[in-house]
What does this fold into?
Amino acid sequence: MLLNEGKDSFLEEEVSFDNSKYVILPIPLDITTSYLKGTKFGPRSIIEASRSLENYDSELDYEVKDKIFTLNELNLSGDIREAMEVINLSVSDILSSGKIPIIIGGEHTATYGASLSFDDSVEFIIFDAHADFKKDYLGLVINHASNSRLVNARHNISLIGVRSLNLEEKEEIGKRGIDIIYRNDISDVSSVDKLLKKLSGKNVYISVDMDVFDPAIAPGVGTPQPDGIQYRDFLDYIKKIINVSNLVGLDIMEVRPLGADNITEVLAAKLIIDMVSLKESKVNSNRS
It folds into this structure.
């Protein structure tokens, strides 16, 4: 196995790998970032921020306890293709152990590496301010601006919260029949219903680029965009998606620490707590 026990744990959990259900894989990837560098420091900052949060979800009446094991950060070279292979192998190890991977990063390209580990039938739900559907960018085919397109080569995807793309990306997304819910349509009931119908009974992987949120609540990202979604909008979507589908993996990407202002890292850590709580609450409800 390529995996090593992490020295710093999310929520300061002391559960062993064998007894855990979820495994956090920190990926300090910052190779193709083209605007604001620093996402390689995101994973550690998310883990540190988690220690300031409670593990009890009052809305769901659920405590995230003895569920999450944290691994060491991956040791990546500066070669993006090699990095994708290391990520693929690491996520495959987690899946083969019967665990649910939670990846924290790090530039969004890591999602592509993770996608290689999953069966083709897994649906990828990508929350992102950007379509990330460029054929190539700055001379690279594998890069953060092509992430969604790369994942779509193997998996069906849905894009949510998009508010930045070019015409070529828009046309290619349309040709492929990909479901996309733009930021200005985030409250459109028919779009949500269509998405939920498609995902019903499916295995899903949820990928969150933190720039999907408004910069007022998530300023520490690699490529910020104004007029993002609010946390409650996101949580409403996640509740509905998890309720109709089976969550098999998730990631929180593009966190770029801003020093003392750690609001983005705190939000990222809270996302993990809330998504695990929602997943586990559904599991417990199905058992009763």
Residues 76 and 100 are 22 Å apart (CA to CA). The longest strand covers residues 246-253. Helices lie at 42-50, 80-96, 110-115, 147-152, 167-175, 189-199, 231-244, 263-287.
